[in-house]
Predict the 3D structure of the following.
Amino acid sequence: MKGLAEYVLRGRFQALFVTVIGACSMLFCWVSAAVVALVILRKGPAQGGWLLMWALLPAGALLLVYGDSGPLAMLIGTAVLALVLRSTVSLPLTVLTSVAVGAASGLALIVFAGQFLDQIVVFFAQFLANLEQQLAANSNDAVVLARPTATQVAGILGTANAVTSVLCLLLARWWQAALFNPGGFGEEFRDLFLPPAATALLLIVALALAAMGVQYRAWSMICLVPLSFAGLALIHARAAWRGQGRGLLTGFYVVWLIIDPVKLLVVLAAIADSWFNFRQRWVHQSDTDTSSSEDDDRG
C-alpha cells in the first residue's frame, strides 16, 4: 500500500490513472477516495479537486447505469473530510465532520434517489419474506419480521458512508505519514479525543432521533460514528501505554466486528474518556511510577 502511495505522488498522470481505474469499480472505489484525500492533504485543494472531478465521471456512470450512489458519495465525503483536515489540522474536528457527511448523503438519497431506495426496500422485503417462510417451516409457527422503510435504508447508507469516508481519510493520512513522517499517524490517531461538549451534543441528538421511532434509529447511528472512532483510538492508546503488541489489537477487532455489545462498550468508553481523559491519567500514573522507582533506587 505504501508503494501505491509513492506511485500516486510521482505525478498527475499516475494519480489520475489510479483514481479513475478505482472509481470504475464499486469494489475498489475506496482506493480512489483515499488517493483523492492523499493528494488534497499533500498537494492542496486545487490538485485534489482536479483529481476529484475526473473521479466523479466513472462514479457518476455507475450511478446512472446501476443506480448505486455509494462510490460517488464516498468520493465526495472523503474529499470533504480531507479538506477539513488540511485546513484545521485537527483529526477530532475532522471526525466530527463525518456526522454532517453521513447526514447529507442520507438526505440526498431521500431527495434525489427515491427510486433507488424503493428498490432496496423491495429487495429486503423479498429476502425477509423468504426467510419468514423458512423459519415458519422449521418451527411450525408464523414468523413476521419487520420490513425496513426507505427512511431507514437512507439512514443506514448515510451511516455507512460516514464510516467509509473516515476510513478512506485515515488510509490517506497513514500513507502520508508513512512517506513523510514515519510513526506520526499512530501518534495522531491515539491522541484522538472528543471534547465533552461535542460528546454531549452527539449523545443528545442520537437519543432524540432514536426516540422519534424505529425508522429514525438508523439515523441516530450517524452520531455515534465519531464516538466509535474515538473509542477505538482509546483502545490503541491503552495498548501502546501497556506495551501490548498488534496481536491483542487484532483479536480485539475480530471480537469488535462479530459481537455487537462490544461496539456499544467502545462508544461508552469514548464518552467516559471525554469527561475523565484517561490518557492524561495514564501519563500521570507513568510519571508517578517512574518517580517512585527513582526514589527507590536512590534509597
Summary: The chain has a mean pLDDT of 89. Residues 191-286 form one domain. The chain has 15 helices and no strands. Residues 49 and 228 are 29 Å apart (CA to CA).
